[in-house]
Design goal:
The complex is a heterodimer of chains A (405) and B (411). Chain A is mainly alpha-helical and 405 residues long. Chain A has helices at residues 2-11, 14-30, 35-45, 56-75, 84-104, 106-111, 115-123, 135-145, 159-177, 193-226, 230-235, 237-272, 283-287, 295-299, 307-333, 339-345, 347-362, 377-402; strands at residues 78-80, 186-189. Chain A starts with a helix and ends with a helix. Chain B contains 15 helices and four strands. In chain B, the strands form two sheets. In chain B, strands 1-4 form a two-stranded antiparallel sheet. In chain B, strands 2-3 form a two-stranded antiparallel ribbon. In chain B, a hairpin with a 4-residue loop joins strand 2 (354-357) and strand 3 (362-365). In chain B, helix 2 packs antiparallel against helix 8 (174-207), helix 8 (174-207) runs parallel beside helix 11 (280-308) and helix 11 crosses helix 12 (312-329). Chain B starts with a helix and ends with a helix. Classes of the chains: A mainly alpha (405), B mainly alpha (411). At the A-B interface, helix 2, helix 10 and helix 16 of A face helix 2, helix 8 and helix 12 of B.
C-alpha cells in the first residue's frame, strides 16, 4: 500500500498536474464548448423562461423542447393510439386560435397579405416567397415561424402548428405500419431532438479529461524507465511486484481524473434541468430525421434506452475506455527513455478516444448519421479494449517475472 | 561543421521522427483519397485543355460547344432507341446508368462553356469595390488609399493581360482540397514534427547523461547552436520529403499538368484575384515557401524555449501553450472581437494559417487565402510576407537574448 501511495505521489507532480489541467480546460471548455455557450445552453433548456429570458439564437431550439414538454405534461412519456383523437382535437383548436390571431395581427394587416398568404408567412416563413416585404417585416415572419415570437391571443408559438402536423403525420404512419394497433399500442416516445443533439458537446469534458491524463501518465512512465530500476525488478519479489503497483497507480489516476470530469458532466446535466426526460425512451428523437438513411440502421443506435440509461451508459463507456487507453499508454511509455519518442509512439492512443467519441457519441446521437453496425458495437469495442489491456499487462508482467539481469 | 553533420545524422536516425513522418504522409494520402471522386472531372478538364489549349477564345468555346453537341446527339439517339421517345434535357439521359461517365463529362463541358462565355462576355466581373480593407492592422490604416489604388491597378492588369480567360479547375473543389486541406495539413504536421525534432535533439544529451558537457564548457554550449542548425537542415529535408511525396501523389491522382502554367487568377475569378501576376505553379511554390518559412519560425521558437527550459517535456508543453495563446489571440469572439481588434492583430504566424471563430464554434483555414485579394482579408499587398519577416526577426531576437542567458546558465 505504501508503494502504491509513493507511486501516486510520483505521478501527481504539480508541474505535470498543471499542464494536464491547462490542457483539460483548453480542450474541454475553450475550444469546442465555451463556458458562455454552456450558460446559454442551460437557458435554452429552461423552457419555462420562454420567451423573455431565452437568447434569440436559441429560441427556435427551446421551442422544440417546449413542444415536447407540452406533450409530456399532457400525454405522458408515450403516446398511444387511443390518444390520437385528443391530439387532433388540440391541433384543430390551436389552428382556430392561430387563424383568428393572424386575422387580428397588426403587422400582417399592414403588410396587406391575403389570409392564406399571411398564415403561410408566419408559419412557414421563406424569404423568397415575399421578396417585396421590408426587412423588418421579413424578420417578423422569421421570428413567428421559428417560435421566437408568439402571436397575441394564442396559447403557443405558431411553430407548434408545424410540430403538431408532423406529429400527427408520424402517428398516422405508425398506425399504418402496425395493422393490429389497439388503443393502448405505443406509437411515439416523447423525447426532444434538441436535447439528444446537445448531448455530444457535453461528453467533450470527459474526452478532454482522457486526453489530459496522457500528459500525466507519459512523463511518469518515461521517468520510471529512466530511473534504472530494472535490476530491482529482476532480482527481488517486491521489485517484480512494483510494476503492478505502477500500473495500479496509473489506473487510480485515470479513475480520479476522468471520474472528476464525469462528476462535472453530471453536475452540468443537472444545470440543464431536464429531469422530466430521465425516464423517457429516446427512440422517437433518434428517428425524427431519417432523410436518406435506412431507419433499420438508426433503430440500432441505442434503441430502447431511456435518457438516463443512455447518459449513464455513455459516461461509463468513456470512463472505461479512458482507463483502458491510459493503462495501455503507460505500458507503451514504460519502454521509452525519451519522453518525445513516447509521445510519438502513443499517437494512436491519442487518436483512439477521439475516434470513439465521434463514432459512438457524436455520430451515433445524430439522427441523420446512424452508423453503428449493431447496438452492441460499443459494448464489443469496450470488451475488446479491456481484453487488450489485460493481455498487455499479463504479457509484460510475465516477461518481468521470468527475466534476469 | 563536423558537429552539425553528426547532429544531422542523429536526427535522421531517430525512429520516432520517422514514425511521425510516415504518419503525416499517411494522413495526407488519406486527405487526397477522401476526395478521389473528383478524379474523373479533373482528368477530363485536363484532357480538354490539352486538346484545345488553355486560353479561352471564341474558337475554343465554339470547339467545346461542337464537342458537346455531337456527344449529346449520340446520347439522345441511344436514349430514343432505348425509351422510344427523345429526351427533353440532359437529366433525362442521366437516368441511363450505362452512360454515367459521359453524362458527367457533358455536364462539366456544359459548365465550362457557360463560365467561359461569362468571362468572354464580361458578365463575370471582379467586384473590386466589395473587397474592403481589413481593419485589424492599425498601423496600415493610413495607407488605405494606396492599398486600394494597388488593388484597382491589379484588377486592371488582370483585364489587360486577360488572366481570367484561361481554363481552370474552378468548377471542381480542387483548390480547396489542395490549399485548405492538403497544404494546411502539411504545414500543421511540419510545425509539430519540427518541435519534436528540436526538443528531441536537445533531450539527447540528457538521455545519454552528457548534459554536464553542455553546461560546463564553451564547446558544449556551442553544441546547442550546432543542434539548432542541424535541426533546420533536417526540418528542411523532412519538409521537402513530406510536401514532395504528398504533392506527387496529389498530382498523379488529379492530373492537371496542362493547367499548371495558366494564371492562378483564372481559377479564382470573379470572386477573388491574386495580389501579383502568378501562374498556378508559381502560386503553389510561393505558398509552399511561405509555409516553409512559417515552419522554420516555429522551429526557432521551439529552439528558444529549449534554451530557456531544461525539462524538455515542459518545454514542449510550453511550446503547445504558445500555439494555444496565438490561436486565442487571433480568434474571433463575436462582439468582443471589436474590442480586441487593434490590440491583438490577426498577424501572428499561427493565425496566418488558421483562425477560430469562438462565437459560432467554427474554424477557418487561412493558408488558402494567402496572396489573394479576397473579401475580409488584409488588403496590404505584402501582408503575409510582412508578418513572417516580422515574426522571424522577433523570434531570432528572442533566441539571441535567450542564448546570452543560456551562456551563463548552470545545471
Amino acid at each position: 500500500m505504501r508503494i502504491l501511495f509513493n507511486e501516486l505521489k510520483k505521478i501527481c507532480l504539480p508541474q505535470y498536474m498543471i499542464i494536464a489541467l491547462i490542457i483539460f480546460l483548453f480542450i474541454g471548455f475553450v475550444f469546442p464548448f465555451s463556458l458562455a455557450d454552456h450558460v446559454a445552453m442551460m437557458q435554452k433548456m429552461h423552457t419555462s423562461d420562454y420567451p423573455d429570458q431565452i437568447p434569440l439564437d436559441f429560441k427556435q431550439y427551446s421551442v422544440e423542447l417546449m413542444f415536447q414538454d407540452m406533450l409530456l405534461e399532457r400525454y405522458g412519456s408515450t403516446i398511444e393510439a387511443g390518444e390520437i383523437p385528443a391530439i387532433q382535437q388540440q391541433f384543430s383548436s390551436f389552428s382556430e386560435q392561430a387563424v383568428s390571431a393572424v386575422e387580428k395581427d397588426e403587422v400582417l394587416k399592414r403588410i396587406g397579405l391575403r389570409m392564406d398568404e399571411a398564415f403561410h408567412f408566419v408559419s412557414i416563413y421563406s424569404p423568397d416567397d415575399e421578396p417585396y416585404i421590408s426587412e423588418e417585416d421579413q424578420q417578423y415572419g422569421w421570428e413567428c415561424s421559428n417560435g421566437v415570437k408568439k402571436l397575441e391571443g394564442t396559447d403557443y408559438p405558431l411553430y407548434f402548428a408545424r410540430a403538431f402536423s408532423t406529429l400527427l403525420n408520424t402517428l398516422e404512419n405508425r398506425v399504418k405500419e402496425i395493422p393490429n394497433a389497439g388503443s393502448s399500442t405505443v406509437l411515439y416516445d416523447t423525447m426532444s431532438t434538441t436535447l439528444i443533439r446537445s448531448l455530444p458537446d457535453h461528453f467533450i469534458i470527459q474526452l478532454a479529461a482522457i486526453l489530459s491524463v496522457f500528459f500525466i501518465v507519459i512523463p511518469y512512465a518515461v521517468g520510471e524507465k529512466r530511473s534504472n530500476i530494472r535490476p530491482l525488478e529482476c532480482s527481488a519479489k517486491i521489485g517484480r511486484r512494483s510494476y503492478l503497483y505502477k500500473l495500479a497507480a496509473v489506473v487510480i489516476t485515470a479513475i480520479l481524473f476522468i471520474g472528476a470530469a464525469t462528476i462535472l458532466s453530471i453536475v452540468m446535466l443537472k444545470g440543464w434541468d431536464v429531469q422530466r426526460y430521465y425516464n423517457c425512451i429516446i427512440d422517437s428523437a433518434m428517428l425524427s430525421e431519417k432523410s436518406g438513411v435506412d431507419s433499420g440502421i438508426l433503430q440500432k443506435c441505442y434503441s430502447g434506452l431511456n435518457f438516463s440509461a443512455l447518459y449513464g451508459t455513455l459516461l461509463l463507456f468513456q470512463l472505461g475506455c479512458g482507463i483502458c487507453i491510459s493503462t495501455l499508454t503507460a505500458i507503451v511509455s514504460m519502454h521509452f527513455r525519451n519522453v518525445l519518442s513516447a509521445l510519438s509512439a502513443n499517437l494512436p492512443f491519442f487518436i483512439l478516444p477521439i475516434l470513439l467519441f465521434y463514432r459512438y457519441i457524436s455520430y451515433a446521437l445524430d439522427p441523420s448519421k446512424g452508423i453503428l453496425l449493431s447496438k452492441w458495437e460499443p459494448v464489443i469495442v469496450f470488451i475488446f479494449l479491456c481484453v487488450c489491456t489485460m493481455f498487455s499487462i499479463a504479457v509484460v508482467y510475465l516477461r518481468i517475472k521470468k527475466s534476469d539481469i | 561543421m563536423k558537429l552539425i553533420q553528426m547532429e544531422i545524422r542523429k536526427v535522421l536516425q531517430s525512429i520516432s521522427i520517422w514514425f511521425l513522418i510516415i504518419a503525416a504522409i499517411v494522413v495526407n494520402i488519406g486527405i487526397i483519397f477522401a476526395n478521389h471522386s473528383y478524379r474523373n472531372d479533373v482528368t477530363y478538364i485536363n484532357e480538354i485543355s490539352g486538346q484545345m489549349g488553355t486560353k479561352i477564345t471564341a474558337q475554343s468555346v465554339d470547339q467545346m460547344q461542337r464537342i458537346y453537341d455531337s456527344v449529346y446527339q449520340k446520347l439522345s439517339i441511344q436514349y430514343e432507341m432505348a425509351m422510344g421517345f427523345p429526351p427533353d434535357q440532359l437529366e433525362d439521359i442521366a437516368k441511363m446508368a450505362s452512360a454515367e461517365d459521359t453524362i458527367r463529362q457533358l455536364d462539366i463541358l456544359d459548365r465550362l462553356i457557360y463560365s467561359a462565355k461569362e468571362v468572354m462576355d464580361g458578365t463575370a466581373i471582379f467586384q473590386k469595390n466589395r473587397i474592403t480593407c481589413a481593419e485589424d492592422i492599425p498601423i496600415l490604416r493610413n495607407t488605405t488609399v494606396w492599398q486600394t489604388e494597388r488593388l484597382y491597378r491589379r484588377a486592371a492588369e488582370i483585364n489587360e493581360k486577360e488572366e481570367a480567360q484561361y481554363l481552370s479547375l474552378k468548377l471542381t473543389p480542387m483548390r480547396e482540397v489542395l490549399y485548405a486541406k492538403l497544404l494546411f495539413a502539411i504545414y500543421m504536421e511540419m510545425i509539430i514534427i519540427s518541435a519534436f525534432i528540436v526538443f528531441g535533439s536537445l533531450e539527447n544529451e540528457f538521455i545519454h547523461d552528457t548534459q554536464a558537457v553542455v553546461y560546463t564548457c564553451k564547446k558544449g554550449r556551442a553544441l546547442q547552436k550546432s543542434k539548432m542548425y542541424a535541426c533546420i537542415v533536417t526540418i528542411t529535408c523532412y519538409f521537402l520529403l513530406v510536401a514532395g511525396v504528398s504533392l506527387i501523389i496529389y498530382y498523379f491522382t488529379f492530373p492537371q499538368w496542362s493547367l499548371m502554367d495558366t494564371p492562378a487568377s483564372a481559377g479564382l475569378y470573379p470572386d477573388m484575384i491574386t495580389k501579383y501576376s502568378l501562374s498556378c505553379k508559381e502560386y503553389l511554390f510561393l505558398n509552399l515557401g511561405t509555409g516553409y518559412l512559417l515552419t522554420i519560425s516555429f522551429a526557432l521558437l521551439a529552439g528558444a524555449l529549449g534554451l530557456l527550459i531544461t525539462n524538455v517535456y515542459i518545454g514542449m508543453m510550453t511550446f503547445g501553450g504558445c500555439l494555444a495563446l496565438m490561436l486565442l489571440a487571433g480568434g474571433e469572439y463575436g462582439n468582443l472581437g471589436s474590442a480586441l481588434k487593434g490590440l491583438v492583430p490577426l498577424s501572428n504566424p499561427l493565425t496566418l494559417l488558421m483562425q477560430i471563430n469562438f462565437s459560432d464554434k467554427s474554424f477557418s483555414v487561412n493558408c488558402s487565402s494567402w496572396f489573394l485579394y479576397k473579401e475580409g482579408f488584409p488588403l496590404f499587398p505584402f501582408f503575409e510576407l510582412a508578418v513572417i519577416v516580422f515574426w522571424f526577426a522577433a523570434i531570432i531576437l528572442f533566441y539571441q537574448c535567450l542564448w546570452k542567458a543560456f551562456k551563463r546558465k548552470d545545471l
